Amino acid sequence: MPTSYPKDRFDDLPHKLDRVGAHRAPAKKGRRWVAVWWALAATALLIGVGAIGLTVLNNRLNITIPGIEAETTPAEPTPEPVPTAEPTTDPSASVTVLNGTPTSGVARSVGDLLTTGGWTVGSTSDADTEDVVTTTVYYADAALEGAARGVAALLPGSEVLLADDFAGSDATLTVVVGSDYAMPAG
C-alpha cells in the first residue's frame, strides 16, 4: 500500500485561505452578523405586535409622545352622597332587642341601656341564631331612619339597616345584638 500519493490540483491552495479540506469554501466577511440582525428584527417585530395587541385588547396602554397631546377621557362623575337622617329619640317607638350571641343576659343589658336613653323597650329575647357578628338596628319604614340612627348612637359600632325582616313584629325597631357588643362591667 502506498504511503504517499501523487500531487494533484487539490493540493495547490493559496496560503491566505486558512481552510482544512478541499471542499470548504472560504467564509465571507460579516456573514455571522446576518443571524444577529434577523433575530433583532424579529424581536422588534414581536414587541411591536404585542404592544398593539395589548392596546387593542384592553385599552390600558397609554403611550405619550412628547409634543403630541394625549387624548383625555372625561372623568366619571362622583356619586353624590345620600343624605342620612339625623339621629332622634322617639319614646313612642317601641324597640325589640334580640340576643344574637351565645352569652346570656346581653338582650336585657341592651334593653336597660336603651330604656335609660329614653326608648320604650317592648321585649327582650334570644335571636334565632347565636352567630351574629355585627349589632344591627332594623327598621321597616324609611321615615323611621332617624329613630333607628338614634338607637344606633347608643350602641357604638352598630349598623342601621332598612329591611322587612322584622316588619311583622309588634315593635317599630328591632335590635339584633352581635358579638361586637361589649357588655358594661358590673
From TrEMBL:
Coiled coil: none annotated. The chain crosses the membrane at residues 34-57. Keywords: Membrane, Transmembrane, Transmembrane helix. Residues 93-181 form the LytR/CpsA/Psr regulator C-terminal domain. Pfam families: LytR_C. Residues 70-96 are annotated as: Disordered. InterPro entries: LytR/CpsA/Psr_C, LytR/CpsA/Psr_CW_biosynth. PANTHER family: POLYISOPRENYL-TEICHOIC ACID--PEPTIDOGLYCAN TEICHOIC ACID TRANSFERASE TAGU. This is LytR/CpsA/Psr regulator C-terminal domain-containing protein. It comes from Cryobacterium zongtaii.
